[in-house]
Every structure is written in C-alpha cells, then in structure tokens.
Amino acid sequence: VVPVRAPELTAPADGPYSFSSQPRSLPPRPKYRQQSNAAETEKGPVRYGNIMIDPRVVRGNVLSVRPPPPQVLGTEPHTLEVKRQRRAQKQILARKFTREQDQPGTPEPVEGREHVHVQTELYLEEISDRIIEVDGECQTDEFLDRPPTPLFIPAKSGKDVATQIKEGELFDFDIEVKPILEVLVGKTVEQALLEVMEEEELAQLWSHQRAFAELRNAEFAELQRLEEQDRRIREEKERRRLEHLEKLRKQKETAEKIAARAFAQRYLADLIPSVFNNLHDSGFFYDPIERDIETEFLPWLMSEVEETLQKKVLGRTMLDSLIRMVVEKRLDEFSHPPPSAQTKAPAEEPGAADAAPKVSGEADAADQPVAEKEETDQPVAEEEPSDSTSSQLEE
Amino acid sequence: MAQPRISAYLPPDIDPTKAALAFGRRALPKLNEELQSPELLTQQRALMALCDLVHDPEKVYQAIALGFLDSLKTLLVHQDQTVRQKTTEVLSIMALHSIGREGLIRSGVISALTGLLDDPVDVSRKNTHQIFDMLAKLPEGAGGVLQAGLIPPLVLKLKTELDEIQELILGTLSNCLRVEVSEALAAGAVTVLKEKLSHPSTAIRSKAAWVLLEISSHAEGKIAVCKEEVIPVLLSLLEDTQPEVQVSSTGALMFALVTPQGRSSAMGAEAIPALLTLVAEETSKARLNAIKALTLLAELPEGRQTLLDHRDTFQRCLDDPSEAVQRAAEIAITVIDWKP
Predict the structure, then answer these.
(1) Would you call B324 and A146 a contact, using CB atoms and an 8 Å cutoff?
(2) Which of A385, B7, B227, B229 shows its CA 20 to 30 Å from the CA of A299?
(3) Backbone dihedral angles phi then psi of residue B280, each to the nearest 5 degrees
(4) What is the pLDDT of residue A13?
C-alpha cells in the first residue's frame, strides 16, 4: 500500500517545467469491470497502484532506442498483440530459466549408452500427441403416449360376503322409470313440436305472402287496366281536341276569306267608277267634237272677237281723236272769235256729248249684229275707254 | 402425461365427423378459429358442427355478430367439394332466418356465390339456388341479386339445370323480375319460359307462368310477351288440371292483356270461354285473376258484346267470401255495362 499522496493539482506558477499537464500517477486498472452506476455513485478515495507491477509501465532500458514495431494502418490491435506476444515469450523464457534452475535433472548418459524413457507401471500406456477421443451419444426416446393405465385390481383382502336381491325388493321399475320416461318423451316431443311449429310458421308466412302477392297483382292489374283506359281516353280526347282546333282554324280561315272577299269587292266596286271619274276628270275621255270646238273653234272665235273689239276700240279712239281735234279746232276758232261762238261751243259740246253717246249708242247698236259688222266692233271697244277718258277730261 | 380424454375408448354416441364444441359462449368463437385453420379435416369437422348449430336463431345472431360470414365466404372458393357443400348448406340454413338474410345481404355473400353456379356437385348448386331464392324474397335481396348481375346466368341455367334446381331458379327470377325486367328480356327469358310452360312438372309450369306474370307487369315485358306470342300458350294452360298452374297463367294473362295487341291476340285465340269457365267455378283460386282478365277483355267492343250474355256469372261472383273477388266482380259488371 502506497501512502496516498494528495495530487498536487496546482503547479507552481514559476516552475521551470513546461508540461501541458502535471505528471500524475495513474489509478490502477480495476480487476473487475465497474458497473456504470457504481462508478458514478461511489467515488471513494483514489487508490494508486504499485507502479512496479503495473503492466502499463514500460520496463527495461529506457535510454536505448528500440525500433518501433512495424506499424501498418490501423494496427493498434496488432501492436497490442505484438506486445502481448513479446511479453508471453519473455515470460516463457523467464519460466524456463527458473524451472531449469529448480529441477535437478538426470545426469547425462555414459558414453555408448542412451537414456530411454520407459514405462514401468503395470499397464503400458500409449503416449501420443493426439489425444484419443471417442464420441459418445445419448438420446432420449421419442415422445410416447403414456400407455393406458393397466387395470388396477387390488388384491383381495377381507372376507367374502354375498348378498342376493330378489325381484321386487329394491324398487318397482315401472314406477321409477315413469318420470324418467316422461322427461325423455316430453323433451323429444317438445323438440318435435318446436320443429313442426317452425315449419308451420314458415308455411303460413309463405301462404300469407302468396295471398298478399295475389291481391297485389290483382290490384296492380286493375291499376294497369285503368291506366291503359285512361291513356286511351286521353289519346282520344287529344285527337278530338286537335280535330276541333283544326275545324275552328279552318272556320276562321274561311270567315276571314269571306270577309276579305266582301271587303275587296266593296272596295273594288267603287274602283271602276272612281277610276273612270278620275280619268274623266283628268280629261282622258273627251268628246272629240267638244274638244275640237274647244281647242280650235273657241280660240279662233275669241281671237276674232278680240280682233273685232280691237277694231271697235280703234274706231272709237279714232273718233275720239277726231272729236278732240274738232273740239280743239273749234276751241281755237272760238277763242279768237267773239263770244257768240261760245254758245255754239257749249251747244256743240252737248251736241258732241250727245253725239258721243249717240255714236256710242250707234256703236252699241252696231255691236249687236256682231257677225256682220266686224269692223265697228273695234272702234266700239276703243270708244268706250275713250268715252270715259273724254268724260273725265270734261269734268 | 395428463390428457383431457380419460379413457382410450370414445364415448358411445359421439360423432367423429363433427368438431368438439366448446362450452357455452365459447362454442362459436372456437369454431370460427377452427374454420380458419389450414388443416382440411379441422375445417370439415367445424363445418359439420356449425351446420347443426345454425338451426338455432340465437346462434345465427351470434355467428353473424362474430363475423362468421367472412370466413365462410373464403371457404366458398375452397378446392375441396365437401367444404364447399357444407358451407353452402350452412349459408342456406342461415338464410332461413331473418337475421341471417339481412346479414347475408349486408356482407355481400351474393356476389361470392356467383362462382358456385357452375359447381360440379349438385347439392352445392341446389343450396346456392336455395340461398338466392330465400334472399330474393326480400326487396333488398332482390336488389342485391340484380346488382350482382345474376339474371342472365340464371336464365341460361334454366335451360340446363335439374328440375328441382329449376324450380328454385324460377322462384328467384319471379321475385327479382318484379323489380326490373330489362336484363332478363335481353337474355331472352321469354323464349325460355315459353318452353317451360309445357314442362311435365306442375311446379315448374306454375312457377314459369308466375315469372311471366312478373315480366308482363312491366311495360317492356308486355311488349315482349305479345311479340313472342306467349298468350296462346297461356290460354292453353287455362285448361290445365292443376289449380296453381291455372292461377299463375290467369295472372300472367291479366297483365299481358293490358296492351291492345295482347287483347286482340287473346280475342283471336278465343280466350273468353276458357276464362268464363274459371270464373264460374266457385272454389277456384284463379277466380280473381280470371275476373280481372275478363274485365280487360270487356273493354273491347266485341268482348263486351260477348260478355253481356254472361253477366249473370259475374253476379254470382258477388257472393264470393273473398272481398277482393267481390270488388273485382263489381268493377267487371260496371265495365260490361258501360255505354259510350
């Protein structure tokens, strides 16, 4: 037991060493694997192992340089193995050495003789390197059924005693069997009844269903018949309705046609007279003689009349101018002569005035026989305006 | 070693073909496990035991709640024919109970059974058709059968199968065709049924006529029936001796005569006398249907003329105990007396 020295954790700050970590003694390798929880819970005083017997410490000459074992990649196990081998070899050598020193051996054989190993026991033994091995087998039997237990007949012991039961002594079979029989028969019959009832129930259900099906079918057929009837009636109605509509339509068409025809007739009845009237009015139908008269005769007549009137007017104008001349001359004449001529002048004048109407009366009288006195017409026409001018002059 | 068996000799009345049943509530779960075991013998024995148990409705309820139907469905496609046969037997007994029927429809056993229609063993096929028949009596079952597209194969089977299976097929078809008829018509059901109407067996004839009834209750069915000229055959069946045949054929006529073509072909085939004989019989079950058929014919002018002479037959029908017959007779009399 090495006295435990407290590790000096704190290095002297001004020490000459330059180790990265303080040199320390390693705790020994425990013999047994530590349980993980034990190591955590219990960290007792740290025990240091004997450095002299620590296998981890390199022994021997440290100063001479040993060549490192050949290192290949990932050779850690190899190095360990190599180390182990070396150690083992050394141990063997060491043991051999010591053993040879312990045991005194037999002396060497004399010249000419040879030592031979000999077995001196009672029984010779073959010594060989190979150990004689013999294989032995052992096997339990296949599982067998347990054989049936043999009938166990216990040995007879005790006294033999016999007894005899006569008929009718124990019980009356007929009476005893009755309840059992009743139960048996009753159960059987009950079961049978149940089965029969089940079948009957099923049969009833099917017959019920069948009856219902019949009724349903009958009703359904009735329904279909009524449907069919309804369909027929509806179709018939529809056809009749269409026919009626057609009839109405035709009637309406005919009525319209008639109305149209009547209206057209009435309209056209006026057409011809109105057309003729229009044409007549616009002068398409003309009496040729009337036309002739109108277009030729009357203009000619009018022109002739105009001519005649112009001539009359001319005549009157001439007459007027004549009268004027006369009157002027007379005026001249009477203005110079003595006033006796003045009474003549007024008498002349009325006479001229009388003469004028007389002339006009003559002219008028001459006017009437128009066809004969054509030449006087114009002077008459001229006279009348000149009459008015002369009368105005006088006034 | 200790064994549950006490002696080497088995008890005297045990059935070696059945599995041992566990006690009480544990019986069915244990059978379920045995059904799923890989060994054939275990499965067979479990099925045998199940067949006996399934007669009890409580056991059926428990079985369905435990999910037996899934294991039974997988067993339907087993190679061994005994397994298949017994499975179909179990399912058919289950279908006898209402809970069983509902469970079967819900778990889609119908589609799983389609593969068994061609099974070589007769009993399996018979059980399969029994299941279909039972299920088709429910409306959801009929819908399920229709959805599984079973109608064309069933119509085909009708030509080739044994007689008793044919009866079952006809029963299934009649219930399914009540709902929808187009698939069957596409598969040519009317032709097949027309042949069956002349089958020697009574049950087949009456069931075939019933299927025709269901077909002609639909509009396209009526057209097909008139086209295939089934009406004369049905009329010939009216003189059949068996009452069920008479009932079914009058029922089929009752529906087929709604269409105008049907009526004209019936008039052409002299339907009125035959129907009148049926109406006149007091105890005939076909009375109701015959009265309905005659009502339809009375809507035709020539029919009305003929029936005016037989008015008293209908009067007598008014005394029939059945209310439906009385009503039908009243309606018939109204139609006969109708004047445009």
Answers:
(1) no
(2) A385
(3) -70, -30
(4) 52
